[in-house]
Design brief:
Distance between the termini: 57 Å
Bound molecules: adenosine-5'-triphosphate
Strand order of the largest sheet: 5-6-7-3-8-9
Helix content: 25-40%
Shape: elongated
Number of domains: 2
Order of helices and strands: EEEHEEHHHEHEEEH
Mean pLDDT: 92
Number of strands: 9
CATH topology of the largest domain: Rossmann fold
């Protein structure tokens, strides 16, 4: 799927959250979205999922089956886990036995008859993941899926994600905790200053890129200038005689 020149703001006169976003998200790829708090990661994921429409630009070729797990699973619904997932399975026309399969895989079988508002944060997160994954979506979007998960589930999630991509799905994930960074072949995007940039493999968004600047000073000031620059944390190389 593609985003072309997408711009978005929540309110007509509000600040632009994202601008000039042009991206391709190929089938079979896993894309990690990074960026500081409030940068616009969740907003980008909502646009990709189709939960928000761009104010400008276009989103094309979105797969028809979309699985989306929000950052915070909305637990304020008066259903048991079984009833909620049963409802989601019916909407998506998948057999009800997928509920048991996912409950077992994600380790929440013992919670199927618990009401959603009574779930812990991590267990609610698992239910959110189960509903996103249950019909093998062609587009899987997970917003901070690792937050609050126990170690056992954290360990199997990268495998599940890689499995969806291997089946040809497009997978987009925001992941503060950098749990999927190690997946081979992952694409990485950084949201910053309202725009989205692709990160080179191995590039650390928290480490600024370096450049070389030549500074010309009178020879008699060279030692003072070097001392000042070093004191400011810059690396100084003096040419040989
Ligand atoms: N429903 C909303 N209505 C108005 N503004 C919103 C709404 N949701 C988010 N915003 C604003 O949009 C900007 C981007 O928020 P967003 O949640 O996309 O960031 P984020 O990168 O996912 O942050 P975090 O890492 O904290 O989850 C922020 O300034 C936020 O206040």
């Amino acid at each position: 799927m593609r985003l072309d020149d997408v711009a978005f703001r929540y309110h007509r006169r509000g600040p632009w959250v994202l601008r000039d976003v042009t991206l391709s998200l190929p089938a079979g790829s896993v894309t990690e979205v990074t960026g500081r708090n409030g940068a616009g990661k969740s907003t980008l994921l909502r646009l990709v999922a189709g939960l928000r429409a761009p104010r400008r630009g276009s989103v094309r070729d979105r797969p028809s089956r979309v699985g989306y797990a929000p950052e915070r699973f909305p637990v304020d619904q008066p259903f048991t886990v079984r009833a909620y997932l049963g409802h989601m399975a019916a909407i998506r026309r998948v057999p009800e036995d997928v509920i048991g399969t996912w409950a077992e895989r994600l380790g929440f079988e013992h919670l199927l008859d618990v009401r959603l508002p009574e779930l812990s944060k991590g267990s609610a997160q698992k239910v959110g993941l189960a509903q996103a994954l249950m019909d093998d979506p062609g587009l899987l979007i997970l917003d901070e899926p690792f937050a609050g998960l126990d170690a056992a589930t954290r360990d199997i999630l990268p495998e599940l994600i890689a499995g969806r991509a291997a089946d040809g799905a497009t997978v987009v994930i925001s992941d503060h905790q950098r749990c999927i960074e190690a997946l081979p072949g992952i694409d990485r995007l950084q949201v910053s200053g309202g725009t989205v940039a692709r990160l080179a493999p191995g590039e650390d968004p928290d480490t600024p890129r370096l450049t070389v600047l030549e500074v010309v000073v009178p020879e008699s000031d060279a030692d003072t200038a070097e001392t000042k620059l070093r004191a400011d944390g810059y690396t100084v190389r003096r040419p040989g005689p």
